[in-house]
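#data-curation
PF: Archiving a pair of folding outputs for the training set. Convention for this channel: one message per protein, sequence first, structure tokens after, nothing in between. First:
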Amino acid sequence: MSLLSVPTELLELILEHLDRQSDINALVQTCHHFYDNFNGALYRLNVKLFSRSALLWAARFGHEGTAAKSLKERPFVEIYDENGLTPLLLAINSNCESIFRRLLMLTGLDLEAKGWVRRTPLATAASLGRQEMVKLLLEKGADLESRDQDCQTPLILAAVDGHEEIVKLLLDNGASLECKDILGQTAVSWAAERGHAKTVELLLVKGAVPDSSDNYGRTPLSFAAKNGHDTVAKLLLEAGADPNSKTMDGNTPLIYAAMYSREAVAVIRLLLEAGSDPTIMNNGGLTAVLLASTDWGTKDPNIVVVNLLLQETTRWMRARAAYYNCSW
């Protein structure tokens, strides 16, 4: 007797009592008739006995059809994969907007479920530059100030990677400008360190403090100088950043530039023109010119920088001597 001659209702009853996905899968792959009538049983079994793993797989790899079939079977209950990630987080990671939108419509979805490094869906989307997903999550009321394991907010994460439009979107929805992470860095501090000039400019226009200091006293200008980001340094100086701010070690932005960005002559010129004092010594008693003329590992001294700092140091010392002579 052929299986095709067995009443559909009877086969459905049999399938409902199977407990292996492979058995049902083997059947539905034999012909279109069985696929059309019994593929749903495969997804029902997956929901019943395997915690809707098909949905997790679909979200991870961006298979909308599989996700749709899985979600048709029984009311949705939040689920997690072996790494603690929800379907929503997986859809964000795989950048599958269609599955993401479908999931957002569900009752029982946890918008604040945390995955890798304790990041929420909004934080994950902000970090990865998923602008439309960020917009949709904000419309659903996602927490703007959630923090990951490093105490970084969605705004800080967006600033780290220079996602300017997402930064604007978060700020327009009320994100806090001056939240600090575990290192004491703000969004503008991170954007300055990474050299994201447009993001720095946006944050400054929105009112970010240009001289916010981290746990070690490093300011956004310190980071920009250290990494040779002259455009960012110019923006910060124009916003009122102190060219002679000191870290806990007594290092100024000029000292950082002399130590770490010896090829970035433009940054050093910019700092000097803004009033950076080349005679300032750090806690080790070293000035910018001394540090610039020292061999730091693979970074040989830059003669142009050394000469420039020597000239400015001499000029400052002469001006200071003249001032003291006049005062006597």
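PF: Second:
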Amino acid sequence: MRHIFHHHHHHHRFHPGPEGRRGGGSPSRRDGESRFSERRFMRGRKLSAEGMQLLILSLIAEQPRHGYEIIRAVEELSQGLYVPSPGVIYPALSYLEDAGLAEAQTDGNRRSYSPTEAGRAHLADAQEAVEALRRAIGRAGDRFDEMRRSEGDDGRHKRPFSETRMALRAALFDLREAPPEVRERAGEILRRTVAELRGLQDKD
């Protein structure tokens, strides 16, 4: 199998394969070491660029998802170890679109993504990589969960605030290409919300 997912200048990019064709192939084994290993796709608590690309493609193949749903799916898969920001997810989705592996359907102000026929073919070709990647993320999440529980913190008291903050960031990203009047209404909502939150601070 040819190598399609590349790491380039530390960006979450999807690049053409060695033959110059878009999406030309998939990760393979080299030098006696599995190219689907945890070290390949994990960089500490973060995914490598090619790991993120492959994971996103596999998640939107399960069902069409918009950006925030992808963020939540990664968070659940890693048991809270890794919560990618919208600034990581949306550029990666754009790159997958440019590579002809993903397509978007617009629903109101949201864009829901699913793989193209070419994207599904690449996933089938990279099935071993997908399975290894998910195992790596799952193992890392298990270790994180064990450590968190041993310290007596399961994170539940922080979850509502964290989820709301992430949903807000994703919603703002979804609105970045909305018509001016929609963005103006969003700005008014944010200004009112900020004023109410500051009012809570004043009461304390």
